[in-house]
UniProtKB/TrEMBL annotation:
One of its GO terms (cellular component) is extracellular region. Keywords: Hydrolase, Secreted, Signal. It comes from the Eukaryota. Gene3D superfamilies: Alkaline Phosphatase, subunit A. InterPro entries: Alkaline_phosphatase_core_sf (IPR017850), Phosphoesterase (IPR007312). It holds the Pfam family Phosphoesterase. GO terms for molecular function: phosphoric ester hydrolase activity. Belongs to the bacterial phospholipase C family. It comes from Trema orientale (Charcoal tree). This is Acid phosphatase. GO terms for biological process: phospholipid catabolic process. It is found in: Secreted.
Length: 524
């Protein structure tokens, strides 16, 4: 699992990716402009009207009073359309090719819940997010990084490692059963002889990708609390590392993904923990650590989202009625690049290519990883188009020796504890539904909606934990039986509605025992 040496001239041998949840650039980092004027942040003069159709509407100005956010602002594809273009989505408005004025955030928030405009039109003071304050000062911030698609969490997370969402713009429970089939950067690295590892807190959302359910990749999943720090200390981190945080908020183990209503201070603690483990590793001088957010979560950002010159990754069209063609990006999100090869206080603006309209977005990770490890092929037309950021770690001829060993302790921002009996967010529901595809419950009549309708956060944690353990146990049984390592693994219930197992093309005939394990029958 140890990182293999790249034959390229780049000093980076290990790329570490941590994707937090649902916050815009201005909301999290906009006020960092007060510390570094080069950052395209906020001054307090930015505003939104409560009603875009009323020229005399009250305007809400952007402030610095963010702390604990509850409830969650709207961030569906239709919410984002209104936030960006200032009008609710209709077929007629979509046909007008409106300019992205970024004036509909307050209006959409008030439609979601009266008084929410103040929530979305505020950001954090630098001292409220001291871990980011330090990282932005010590390393690089990109102030032109956009979500890959103007939609919610799941499509954007899929883009991070595959440069496409395979046509997804919302929840698709049928697709969850088989997993998303697109090729990922994990496979590209594996095919070229490089290693990868996923350090998870239950459950790993990367299992939304079908190919990561193959037996050959199961050993690439590592429990974060058990293995991450030790692998850092032993210098055993692989070439491509994905950190998966806690997506559920419990009293005993608070959520640390920054998704409202989770406490951002817990996310700060998590980034601090990851950074300090990497900083202490003997691999530090070969590491690039990327912290970014999957999408903006409904929070205001003043930079217009790119709406022209964006290529569809694969020609797929999103679900009706929106029929999105993946030809514009989402709202700007925070992105911080960390490495001893990066100069202090670096600000990365728009890329210089490879195309005139290229932008930094989630596919930029796959595109840059392709360069670092000299991989032969792009994943889609989107990562072929996306800007790359290798220039930030090619300025120096030697790594820095003055990088901070530790980061500041963040202040607590939430009064009280986690709300364990809360209903699930959309993404949490999708994680539970994915867990049901891992333990076989997808074949029962409770799937998909009855499974999650009355589930609380604490219930969901127990369910996902058990489902993932069942999946791992069945994987081990399959490996012990000698099953083909290229097989995609999932449990199936003994039901006539159970889908056929997915098999790789041109697979050799199997024995009867192997065929049984191909289905991994679980009587749940």
């Amino acid at each position: 699992m140890v990182a293999e040496s790249s034959s390229s001239a780049y000093p980076i041998k290990t790329v570490v990716v941590l994707v937090q949840e649902n916050r815009s650039f201005d909301h999290m980092l906009g006020w960092m402009k007060s510390l570094n004027p080069e950052i395209d942040g906020v001054t307090g003069s930015e505003s939104n009207p409560i009603s875009t159709s009323d020229p005399n509407s009250k305007r809400v100005f952007f402030g610095d009073r963010s702390a604990y956010v509850d409830p969650d602002p709207g961030h569906s594809i239709q919410d984002i359309y209104e936030q960006v273009f200032g009008q609710p989505w209709t077929e007629d408005s979509a046909a007008k090719n409106l300019a992205p004025a970024m004036q509909g955030f307050a209006q959409n928030a008030e439609r979601t819940q009266p008084g929410m405009a103040e929530t979305v039109m505020n950001g954090f003071k630098p001292d409220s997010v001291p871990v980011y304050r330090e990282l932005v000062s010590e390393f690089a911030v990109c102030d032109r990084w956009f979500a890959s698609v103007p939609a919610a969490t799941q499509p954007n997370r899929l883009f991070v490692h595959s440069a496409t969402s395979h046509g997804l713009t919302g929840n698709d429970t049928k697709q969850l059963i088989q997993g998303f089939p697109q090729k990922t950067i994990f496979e590209s690295l594996d095919e070229a002889g490089f290693s990868f590892g996923i350090y998870y807190n239950y459950p790993p959302s990367t299992l939304f990708y079908r190919n990561l359910r193959k037996l050959k990749h199961i050993d690439n999943f590592h429990n974060f609390d058990v293995h991450f720090k030790r692998h850092c200390e032993e210098g055993k981190l692989p070439n491509y590392v994905v950190i998966e945080q806690r997506y559920f908020d419990l009293l005993s183990v608070p959520g640390n993904d920054d998704h409202p209503s989770h406490d951002v201070s817990e996310g700060q603690k998590f980034v601090k923990k990851v950074y300090e483990a990497l900083r202490a590793s003997p691999q530090w001088n070969e590491i690039l650590f990327i912290v970014l957010y999957d999408e903006h979560g409904g929070f205001y950002d003043h930079v217009p989202t790119p709406v022209t010159g964006v290529p569809s990754p694969d020609g797929l069209v999103g679900q009706p009625p929106y029929n999105f063609r993946f030809d514009r990006l989402g709202v700007r999100v925070p992105a911080i690049l960390i490495s001893p090869w990066i100069e202090r206080g670096t600000v990365l603006h728009e890329p210089s290519g490879p195309f005139p309209t290229s932008q930094f977005e989630h596919s930029s990770i796959a595109a840059t990883v392709k360069k670092i490890f000299n991989l032969p092929h792009f994943l889609t037309k989107r990562d072929e188009w996306a800007g790359t950021f290798e220039a930030v770690f090619l300025i120096r001829t030697t790594p820095r020796t003055d990088c901070p060993v530790s980061l500041p302790e963040p202040p607590r921002l939430r009064e009280g504890g986690a709300k364990e009996e809360s209903k699930l967010s959309e993404f949490q529901s999708e994680l539970v539904q994915m867990a049901a595809t891992l333990n076989g419950d997808h074949a029962k009549d409770v799937y998909p909606h009855k499974l999650v309708d009355n589930l609380t956060v604490s219930d969901a944690v127990k369910y996902c934990d058990g489902a993932f353990k069942t999946f791992l146990d069945e994987c081990q049984r399959a490996k012990d039986s000698g099953m083909d390592a290229s097989h995609v693994v999932f449990c199936v219930a003994n039901s006539p509605t159970t889908p056929l197992p997915i098999r790789p093309s041109q697979q050799a005939p199997k024995s009867f025992a192997q065929k049984i394990f191909s289905c991994l029958i679980c009587d749940h």
